[in-house]
Design brief:
With about 400 residues, this protein is of the alpha+beta class. It is built from 15 helices and 14 strands. A hairpin with a 6-residue loop joins β9 and β10.
């Protein structure tokens, strides 16, 4: 763990550079009615090396702006115009993205509240989450280990196209169990569902499920948010990511290895080898939106739709996956049966005992080509798409798969 920590802890030089960037930005954006403060993993002290994203909260005076909270984004925009070029990002409350000396900085306007009851918008509560973690800074290195482990086993990220563990959940789990080692030992024994209430907001799990947001407790992992008790902080985690994490913990406990902390690189040749005698086909997919989460969701939909379309044309899809590093187009891969499809495909119609209307409709459409087999009508049709090259030409005309092409 010491060796891993040395690699995932920012150097003094990197830390000093980040502090200088924060100092420069906060010195430029000043005002009587607000204060610009650092947020995110930087404020929590658990950020990993190579970070390029920095969050800032523009905290407006509560008493003065509580009745004008719906205008905070407008106030922030006027202030930022004096100092930086920025991009406005729409959300429950609009916030702003600034590029500064190689860093992507997000400025989030919020009310300076002391309790969640004062919040006028969900974003107002975010600084309270930061404060809760920051007060427990002793586990910062344990959080780093947990985050890096999650990245290494492929379950990190709460974006809607990933459905994994968020940084916030990693922090809560680290604080709850006290160390990375204890977390993986305990998680290796988790069952189909796990309930965690680190602040003991509820007397029992049953009481929690009665009082928590019903739509948010369907996840296999239910983590009561320490700041917002009605919220499941782990609601975004899918069953697949949950099971993958438990399995990784079990294997790690059985046979610890540094490899679990290494982020896997996309390796086309390795995928081809794993496919054995089957054929692997690769497609590239160009993102069609500047918003990472939106673009990721659309890529995922295209990946799933492409697989269904291949099966509709009778390709046997044995396996598949996709990879996107957000810097280049995404890559889809599908393992398929290598045999070329037959020149003729059998299109089945209604059974001989089906309602007469269905039979008449089928026979009227296909006329003399209709035949019967095993008490069911069918017709043999010429197959236009017999291999992946034919399929690749077809999808060029499919609007849903815009931006997808064969590699």
């Amino acid at each position: 763990m010491k060796e891993i920590l040395e690699k995932i802890t920012p150097t003094r030089e990197e830390e000093q550079k980040l502090k200088e960037i924060v100092r420069e930005i906060t010195s430029k954006i000043k005002g009587k009615d607000f204060k610009l403060v650092i947020g995110g993993s930087v404020a929590k002290g658990s950020w990993l090396p190579g970070i390029t994203d920095i969050d800032f909260f523009m905290k407006f005076d509560y008493n003065k702006y509580k009745e004008k909270s719906f205008q905070l984004s407008s106030y922030a925009e006027k202030i930022l115009k004096k100092h930086f070029k920025f991009k406005k990002i729409h959300g429950s409350r609009d916030y702003f993205s600034i590029k500064y000396k190689g860093y992507d900085c997000e400025i989030i306007p919020v009310l300076n509240i002391r309790s969640i009851g004062q919040a006028r918008n969900i974003t107002d509560i975010s600084p309270l989450h930061v404060n809760w973690v920051a007060r427990r800074s002793k586990v910062a290195n344990q959080v780093r280990l947990v985050k890096q482990f999650m990245k290494g086993v492929g379950v990190y990220g709460a974006e809607s196209y990933i459905h994994g563990f968020s940084g916030h959940v990693c922090e809560i789990l680290s604080i709850h169990y006290g160390s990375f080692a204890r977390l993986v030992r305990e998680a290796s024994k988790w069952g189909d569902h796990k309930f965690i209430d680190v602040e003991k907001h509820y007397k029992s799990e049953k009481e929690a499920y009665i009082k928590m947001n019903g739509s948010k407790i369907a996840s296999p992992l239910n983590v009561v948010d320490p700041v917002q008790p009605e919220r499941n902080a782990a609601a975004a985690i899918s069953a697949d990511k949950y099971i993958t994490f438990i399995d990784a913990c079990h294997k790690f406990v059985s046979r610890p290895s540094k490899n679990y902390f290494k982020e896997r690189e996309f390796d086309i040749e390795a995928i081809k080898k794993q496919a054995s005698k089957n054929k692997v086909v690769f497609f590239s997919c160009k993102p069609d939106n500047n918003n990472t989460d939106v673009a990721g969701c659309r890529i995922l939909r295209k990946f799933r739709y492409c697989a269904k379309l291949m099966e509709a044309f009778d390709f046997i899809v044995l396996n598949g996956g996709w990879y996107w590093n957000q810097q280049k187009p995404a890559i889809f891969w599908y393992v398929i049966d290598p045999k070329k499809l037959s020149a003729v495909r059998r299109h089945w119609g209604p059974g001989t005992k089906d309602p007469l209307g269905r039979i008449q409709g089928f026979t009227k459409k296909w006329k003399k080509r209709v035949k019967v087999s095993n008490s069911r009508y069918y017709v043999d049709l010429k197959r236009d798409i017999r291999d992946i090259n034919d399929f690749a030409k077809y999808i060029k005309r499919d609007k849903i798969l815009s931006g997808v092409k064969l590699l």
